[in-house]
């Protein structure tokens, strides 16, 4: 590892893209004897930025915890005993076992799960499915069972809610921050985004006099910065959205021309929201009725209001419907695809050479339980993986390939997944560090960081850069996409996947080789010619494949009543369901566990469970915290900094109390990310998902209810 005390002895600097996460921030890499010694933000260039995790890049790249060589298991699953192997031996073994499983049980007996480590641009373009993550390698193999962390993250916000309402994914819905008069941040905390480009835009807009309203159960960074913070009971955002719609409709503040010409189901929606009076919304959410009215009027009269929402709204018993209701509010108030509103961005035409890999006809596990999820994503649902292994339903699953993911620190009640992993015939993990999942693997393959590869990066608006290798890979680590290519070659379909980084670039720009030439000549990147921004694209026939005006939905209109949801037996209206495990739910549970449990709020020093072994980042927060209000702490004899025991119906875990006013009375927020074997002790023993519920899910997405459960807290016993 580089001696960080001598970082002033820099021998070379390189313009680069940060390689800690796939965000592609432009940085200046400072080198010492051919190794990365320090990182600084690249100034005065598009998408230049450096977060605290990027600043720690030398520690991450040269961490003693990096997996440096392929490993083969020699101990019991979970024991963590491996021997080093050559790449050929490890890949040959993995391919041989996969082919044996295919021969004995059928190709569907192999599954995959991809996570944040699979976000790199070329891997996403060549290897991942419609949800941008699920590994198409399984489809090439003949198995439909390609899953990803889209089974519990982003897909509700990014695909299910917008597609069932507007017909397009959230990647094509972008807030026009700079031209707005009001910015509403709902279910998001942009400072923790990777990369935080949206955060910078919002902060600058506020400096320019734009008003920011933050809607969040917790006084997050954006809530503290906002001109107005609206605090509500966790899991009740759907009731608030419907209450706002109630006011907008009843006071006739909606865009009547838009509703008449471009929507279906308005009368049904109008009738449904009558029950969500301001007083009733106050009873449900805790937001004062007069504030509900004033907020509805402000959004409707802003001319125009931008919306930044994200995954914070996914994790309730009506997560998809809540997200749909928020989108409907923006459409009703005339804030959809107008200057300063929530704009529809047409997808760019990419220069990549496509290789069509047909999806197997057999349906994956989870398709029957979550049919809308399957129809939109084409993916297996990993929440149903334990059943497929342990009960062999809908059929037996015997093998699993995990790429850049830590399921045992992210899925609820991880013991259920451990039981499944222990029963597998084959488990292969590709990663940079030894996750808890990897302890159960037969084969562990070392992946390179993005500082150690050649690739490319696309940004919003079509701006493109080449990702140029900064340092040689640590040990024998390899580019993820080349690992996939090597494995595909051994399985008999290597021609479908690039076999070298040169081939990656050639295929990525096959339809525009001139662009590749320009990128090689311009290390600061290439900006395509900017075209005039078009608004109200639904009027101009720009959204539908047939070129007709309207939206790409079954009705051709924005659907307040979703035909796709009704097709699969779900309620077409954005129906609100109060948290099943909440103050208004099971009263026996509430008496024993009277605090609303919210989990998963991100902290800047980590990315999910990553980096909790990196000294400089651990120093920023060396323990997992539970945020608790002053009143609740005083009632329980808890002081700031105390070690406390948090208990739910499912288990107990120890955390450290952060007492204050960042959360509402009666609610707590607990850090997610603990539970990995290489983390420092406090985090390693603090996996919040021991407390969460495997069975309590949104019925449309299948997402676990991470933000609306119940718990109790007490001081930890004195040791």
TrEMBL record:
Keywords: Iron, Iron-sulfur, Metal-binding. Belongs to the prokaryotic molybdopterin-containing oxidoreductase family. The keyword Iron-sulfur applies. Transmembrane segments: none annotated. This is Molybdopterin-dependent oxidoreductase. It comes from Dehalobacterium formicoaceticum. It comes from the Bacteria. Residues 11-65 form the 4Fe-4S Mo/W bis-MGD-type domain. Pfam families: Molybdop_Fe4S4, Molybdopterin, Molydop_binding. The keyword Nucleotide-binding does not apply.
